[in-house]
Design brief:
Distance between the termini: 18 Å
Radius of gyration: 21 Å
Helix content: 40-55%
Structural class: alpha+beta
Strand content: 15-25%
Number of helices: 11
Shape: globular
Bound molecules: alpha-D-galactopyranose
Largest sheet: 8 strands, mixed
Length: 389
């Protein structure tokens, strides 16, 4: 929807003009899965699908929300912020307001229209894009002095402590700090980042939504986090100085692996080698070695499937289809796993054939109709309309 249209819709609902429009994108991770909460490395890009927040101040200390997709409104008072019992969509905005107030920022009321283009439940970080858009809306309306890294940390805190999902920092970071045409290399321990210009001329990233939504995904995600904590504790017997799996080198792992219980061994092996693959991907992409990078994508998927055990038959099938198709350099599940999306690196001239093949084989075998998103590596969140029109 274009800007004028959004403003028109806003006017129809709130009987006044908005002063600001903020856009925050979803993300897709190129490589480095489940490494963020182990203090490791990740390599996401923002995608050209945004949560749009059309906003203006009000002076009664209330947050009024209208979501164009759900055609639903919600309201809460800044003086009394609690999560909704039914876990409604407005918990994200409530959570952001709460963490800002708790951190001592002075914010006031806001009338908000939300229009999100980021597919939900697909693993493309629609939640992080809502959190970042909400936080930036408060920042713009109330002139908050708040640094980018602090914004990502507060947005993650809202999701961890208020919404109750124990995610890492990657999604919020990517939604805020990505740069057009670049991948974002993040060191999740020290929160430093570098951009990698993506020279993939003639190739594109194609994202395919398996349409598998796993109810279990949240509890399995938290279970993996717990296993990683257990793994650190176990390894500290041999390596007392480590505080996270990030500190375990490949040499350490190979030296002590025979002492490790089977499940922990597999989890550690994934994290240790996945971190290495992110660093290697960084180097390969800087030198435009996209074939080698594609190979690392396949390796990452294999490891997520066999060692970290977060894949699903449907995701494996999508990756296998890619392996047999000409022009596909790499494919892997992206995001938390258990369902959601697969990302392909594919020659532009082969995209249509790949889609046809997937629609044919995947649909026949699973009975599901997958969705495709051809995505462009995009910039992070920005102010689309600033001040009084
Ligand atoms: C989800 C989380 C991220 C990250 C990925 C797995 O997307 O929100 O923080 O842990 O899973 O890489």
């Amino acid at each position: 929807m274009n800007k004028e249209n959004l403003i028109k819709q806003y006017k129809a609902i709130y009987k006044k003009f908005p002063t600001h429009i903020i856009r925050a994108p979803g993300r897709v991770n190129l490589i480095g899965e489940h490494t963020d909460y182990n203090d490791g490395f990740v390599l996401p890009i923002a995608i050209d699908r945004y949560t749009n927040m059309i906003v203006s101040q009000n002076d009664d200390g209330k947050i009024r929300l209208y979501d164009l997709k759900y055609k639903e409104s919600e309201e809460f008072d800044l003086k009394n912020i609690k999560p909704t019992q039914q876990k409604k969509w407005s918990d994200y905005q409530r959570g952001i307001a709460k963490v800002l107030l708790d951190a001592g920022y002075e914010i006031g009321g806001m009338d908000v229209l939300i229009f999100s283009e980021v597919p939900e439940g697909a693993g493309l970080s629609s939640s992080a894009s809502i959190e970042i858009a909400t936080l930036l809306s408060f920042k713009e309306l109330y002139d908050l002095e708040i640094k980018p890294i602090e914004i990502t940390k507060l947005a993650r805190k809202a999701e961890n402590d208020f919404v109750g999902v124990e995610c890492g920092i990657m999604d919020q970071f990517a939604s805020l700090l990505s740069k057009e045409g670049n991948a974002l290399f993040i060191d999740c321990r020290i929160l430093e980042y570098k951009y990698i210009p993506l020279s993939i001329q003639g190739y594109s990233f194609l994202v395919c939504n398996s349409m598998v939504k796993r109810k279990l995904s949240e509890s399995s995600y938290n279970q993996r986090k717990q296993e990683c904590r257990d793994a650190v504790k176990f390894l500290q017997k041999y390596l007392p100085e480590i505080t996270s799996l990030r500190d375990v080198s490949i040499n350490d792992f190979e030296k002590y692996k025979s002492f490790l219980p089977d499940t922990l061994k597999k989890r550690i092996e994934h994290i240790v080698y996945e971190n290495e693959r992110v660093i290697q991907s960084y180097r390969e992409l800087l030198q435009d070695n996209i074939e080698r990078f594609g190979g690392l994508m396949y390796q990452s998927h294999q490891s997520l499937k066999e060692l970290y055990e977060v894949s699903a038959e449907e995701l494996d099938l999508l990756v296998e289809i890619g392996k047999d198709e000409p022009g596909v350099l790499g494919a892997r599940l992206t995001g938390a796993g258990f369902g959601g999306c697969v990302i392909y690196l594919v020659k532009n001239s082969c995209i249509e054939k790949l889609k046809e093949k997937i629609l044919d084989v995947y649909s026949k075998k699973t009975g599901l109709i997958p969705q495709f998103y051809e995505i462009v590596p995009s910039g992070g969140a920005y102010v689309w309309l600033n001040g009084n029109r």
